[in-house]
Design goal:
Number of strands: 5
CATH topology: Rossmann fold
Order of helices and strands: EHEHHEHEHHEH
CATH superfamily: P-loop containing nucleotide triphosphate hydrolases
Number of domains: 1
Mean pLDDT: 87
Structural class: alpha/beta
Distance between the termini: 12 Å
Number of helices: 7
C-alpha cells in the first residue's frame, strides 16, 4: 500500500503491523462512526462490543455481566493478532476495571496498543445523536434514552486517566476526515516493514 496522502480525498493508508487499535469514549461520542471511517481508510477489521454480545447472547436479558462481555470482545481479536494483523476494537471502556482488562490483554497478546478516546459531546449534540440512533433500525446499542446516557456519563471514568495506556483524545465534533488523518499519522510507528 502507499504512503499517507492527506487532503480532500480520503487518506491512503500504509499497511499496519499487528496491533490493537481501541476506539473508546462515552455513549454517543461517535465511536462506531470513527471506527468505521478508520476501518475503511486502513482496511482493518472492527470488533464492536455491541455487535459482539448481540451476536453471541442475542438479547440484553441473556447478556452476562459486562466484564465477561469485554473479555469476549478481546478474545474475538485473538485470531487477527495470531495472524500478525491489526484489529480495531470498539467499546466505551468506561471503568478502571475495563481499562486494566485492555492493558492486560495488550500485554498478554504482546500487541502494541493505541487508544483513541472520543471526547463527550455537549448536551445538544448528544440529543441530536440520540435522535439519529433511535431512527436507525440497525443500531445495536442498548442505551436508548437521554436519561440512560446522562446516568452512564455520571459514572464514566475516561481511559485517558490510565497511567500505562497510550491515549489520544479525539474531538468527535470535528470533521471526520481530520480526525482520521490525525489518527493515521499517529500510527506511523506501527507501519509494517
Amino acid at each position: 500500500m502507499g504512503e499517507l496522502i492527506s487532503g480532500r480525498d480520503h487518506a491512503k493508508p500504509f499497511e499496519l503491523r499487528r496491533c490493537l487499535i481501541a476506539v473508546a469514549g462515552p455513549n454517543l461520542s461517535g465511536k462506531t462512526t470513527l471506527a468505521n471511517s478508520l476501518s475503511k481508510a486502513l482496511a482493518v477489521p472492527i470488533l464492536d462490543i455491541d455487535e459482539g454480545w448481540r451476536n453471541k447472547w442475542g438479547s440484553l436479558e441473556n447478556r452476562p455481566p459486562m466484564p465477561e462481555v469485554y473479555a469476549y470482545n478481546h478474545q474475538r481479536a485473538l485470531p487477527y493478532l495470531a495472524e500478525n494483523k491489526p484489529v480495531i476494537i470498539v467499546a466505551t471502556y468506561s471503568q478502571p476495571a475495563y481499562h486494566e482488562m485492555l492493558d492486560n490483554f495488550a500485554r498478554e497478546s504482546q500487541s502494541p496498543l493505541r487508544v483513541f478516546h472520543n471526547l463527550p459531546t455537549d448536551i445538544e449534540e448528544t440529543k441530536r445523536r440520540l435522535e439519529k440512533r433511535l431512527s436507525d433500525p440497525n443500531d445495536l446499542s442498548d442505551v436508548r434514552t437521554l436519561n440512560q446516557v446522562l446516568e452512564i456519563q455520571s459514572h464514566y471514568h475516561p481511559i485517558s486517566n490510565h497511567p500505562n495506556i497510550w491515549v489520544m483524545e479525539i474531538d468527535g465534533t470535528r470533521l471526520q476526515e481530520e480526525n482520521v488523518a490525525k489518527i493515521i499519522t499517529s500510527l506511523s510507528d506501527l507501519r509494517k516493514d
